[in-house]
Amino acid sequence: MLTSSIIKTFRRWPLPTGIGHPRTYFTKEEISELIKKSEKCSELFNKVISRCDYYLSRLETHKIGNIRTLAHILEELSVAYVIKRKDAYLKKAQEIIKIILSQEDWVMPEHKPLKIDLGVAHVAQGLAISYDMLYEHLSSGERSKIEDILINNVLDPYLSICVNKSEWWTRSKYNWRSVICGRIGIVAITLAEEYPNAKACLEESIKGVLEVLDNGGIDGGWSEGIGYWGYGIGEAVRFADVLERFSNGVINLFEHQFLKKTGDFGLYCYTPDGGCFNFADCAYNPPNTWLMAKLASKYKNPYWQWYVNRNPPISTYGFIVYDPTLEEKDPNELPKSKHFRSIDIIVLRSGWNIDDVIFFFKSGKTAVSHSHLDINSFALNAYGKRLIVDLGRWAYAHAAGFFDVRKRRWEYDANDTIGHNTILVDGKGQKYGEDNYGKILKFENLGEYCYLVSDGTKAYGKLLNHFIRYVVYIKPYMFLIVDDLSSDEDRRYEWLLHYEGKIEGKDELRIINEPGVLDIISLKPNSEEDRVISINNRTSYYKATYGWVSYENKYLSIMPLHSRKDYRFVVFMNVRHLSEKVKIEAELIKFTNEEAHIRMLRDENRYQVYINFKKQDVKVKSLD
After folding, report:
1. What phi, psi does 450 have (nearest 5°)?
2. Contact 610, 595 (CB under 8 A)
3. Which of 137, 397, 402, 437 has its CA 20 to 30 A from that of 199?
4. In the 8-state DSSP scheme, what is residue 60?
5. Phi/psi at 467 (5° precision)
6. Cis amide prior to 335 (ω within 30 degrees)
7. Cβ–Cβ under 8 Å, residues 374 and 277
8. Three-class SS state of 428
9. How far apart are CA 68 and CA 369, in angstroms?
10. Plot region of 499 (φ>0 → left; ψ -120 to 50 → alpha; else → beta)
11. Please, what is the end-to-end C-alpha distance for the chain in angstroms?
């Protein structure tokens, strides 16, 4: 309903004329406030100036082979010039404009034969922002050259491709669509008077961005992971910001319910060591800081501002959107556990402080953009360190099948099940497809403890009849993982745990990543069963798109020695500080086909967990 309403409003709205430049990130009237802000937030702004001074003194821009890097530098120099009025910035920007205009092709080599791709959108936006910022300082000849190349090489082909749906990204609901549509939409806004088809272009951009936002969860979750959330939703928000300013608030994409909630996705997936829950193709970096800054400012959200104040945006656009007057609130006031139902991810936290425990759990679809075969996988951070890890994003190898979801993508450990904290069956992992997915059946947050029940059966195709994973979190330090598995024929079931740091022990194992320690007791299989426990270290070497790389995959494997139709793993885990001497115990009190009773102890704190396999239910009782 909102999407159709916005499109109807847009069609009735005449594009404004004669509003002058700049008009994208700010207007001429807002420059004086930005200058004051640069003084008030000098530490933030000085990072921008330091980079720009580096571009002047030590960077030979004519030797930079990556035109996208040049476009980014150009945008920074142009914005910095408007605020700082340093003539050398203008001169260097004009030099870069000439270099960019001299390039015949902005399409990234790995994306050819596309005519419009992420590279074209990136360079076009950088050039357009520079045109917008430096409009009064460019000669009519310089402006004409920029207008011609942006219209002929970008806007005209973009409009034709969108109308005819002639390139695959026009049907995407993920980051490619919002990045291309958002960035080229900004180009259309910049050249609104010079380009007769600007409104048609802008409509295609609005429709494309809204279709991506409509694909987001009502709770703010994003299935591509935090990295592509920061990229794809980030560029959607940047476009929304510029469009709202250009239309004087008439076209307001910030009314979208997904955007009103999605800052929670960044806040909950953030780890205080400067990382995140890096599921899917995502590096271990903090959630996009300028995106969080813009969302916090737009919606006056003090909890998101808390995150921003601890992770201040260092980009030029981040400086512009950061609101230093917005007061923060400690997110420890919020519920510490959250289920993003739209993507079936659960976050269990003891808090947001450096010493707190954070447990991430992943279920959901396999057939989404940039997905991994990671159903029923998890990760754990404590004391500011990663203990149980997701391998995250490995370098892309376009020519070697990195995105061939039919087969070759799953030959890279980071993407396949062998790179995640879940189950292998006869050495095989999960499958990719619409029919292969996981589903969180239950999640309860009951004060002293939380539990979840997740069904991963369908992720394995015909390998399994049944895979239910139970996770019990007794706050703040104890975890119990129980896996209920069955198949039509005898199988070898293998329990995987990927770790950071070092691992010690035999029957009672310890992962140590100072100062964090994770104690692990395997109750099934236990020391009275035939079993195989191995510490594995696989290193993959391959030629990525931009050169040779190598990656390590360290993991603990636990499995019964012999194959069987049914098996249940029971693993107890305890988190502690390296300096702590903690007494821990775990034992199976009752274990039948119908139920399991597990007693757990940490010092004087004793609990009994009751799992009903038939009802797929969990109860916890304190024995103190």
Report:
1. -125, 155
2. yes
3. 137
4. -
5. -150, 100
6. no
7. no
8. strand
9. 23
10. beta
11. 54
Tokens for 500? 């950071």
Give residue for tokens 């998890």.
378
SS3 assignment, position 464: coil
Residue 489, SS3?
Answer: strand
> What would the two tokens of residue 381 be?
């951070």
263 contacts 289 by C-beta, under 8 angstroms = no
Q: Tell me which DSSP letter residue 400 carries.
A: G
The residues facing 486 across adjacent strands are: 466, 566
- Consecutive sets of 10 residues in the chain, 624 residues long: mean pLDDT of each? 90 92 97 96 96 87 81 97 96 95 94 98 98 97 97 98 98 98 98 97 98 97 98 98 97 98 98 97 98 98 98 97 98 97 97 97 98 98 98 97 97 98 98 98 94 98 97 97 98 98 91 98 95 96 97 97 97 97 95 96 95 96 89
Residue 43 gets the label, from left (phi > 0), alpha (psi -120 to 50) or beta, of alpha
CA–CA dist 97, 74 (Å, integer): 7
Coil vs helix vs strand at 395: coil
Q: How far apart are CA 466 and CA 223, in angstroms?
A: 24
Instruction: Return the H-helix or E-strand segment holding 265.
Output: helix 263-269
The secondary structure of 397-453 as a DSSP string is -GGGTTT-TTTGGGGSTTTSGGGSSSEEETTB----STT-B-EEEEEEE-SSEEEEE
Cα–Cα distance for residue pair 198/191, rounded to 1 Å:
7
Three-state helix/strand/coil letters over 502-560: EEEECCEEEEEECCEEEEEEEEECCCCCCEEEEEEEEEEEEEECCEEEEEEEEEEEEEE
Residues 6+ apart with CB under 8 A from 358: 271, 347, 348, 349, 350, 380, 381, 382
Strand ranges across the sheet with 547-560: 423-425, 493-498, 547-560, 531-544
Long-range contacts of 402-407 (CB under 8 A, 24+ apart): 405/432
- Strand 531-544 to strand 478-491: parallel, antiparallel, or no bridges (unpaired)? unpaired
DSSP 8-state assignment for residue 63: G
List the 584-591 sheet strands across, edge first: 584-591, 595-602, 605-612, 617-622
On the 0-12 / 13-18 / 19+ scale of CB atoms within 10 A, 32 is exposed
Residue 62: its pLDDT value, please? 64
Per-residue three-class SS string for 152-187: HHHHHHHHHHHHHCCCHHHHCCCHHHHHHHHHHHHH
Cα–Cα dist 75/62, whole Å: 16
Contact of 26 with 34, CB cutoff 8 Å: yes
Spatial distance between the Cα atoms of 104 and 115, rounded to a whole number of angstroms: 12
The Cα–Cα gap between 456 and 220 comes to 23
Render 13-35 in DSSP notation, one character per residue. SPPP-S--S--SS--GGGHHHHH
- Count of CB atoms situated within 10 Å of the CB of 453: 22
Helix (H) or strand (E) holding 94: helix 87-102
Which amino acid makes up residue 282? C
Residues 6+ apart with CB under 8 A from 92: 55, 56, 61, 77
Structure tokens, 498:
């990927």
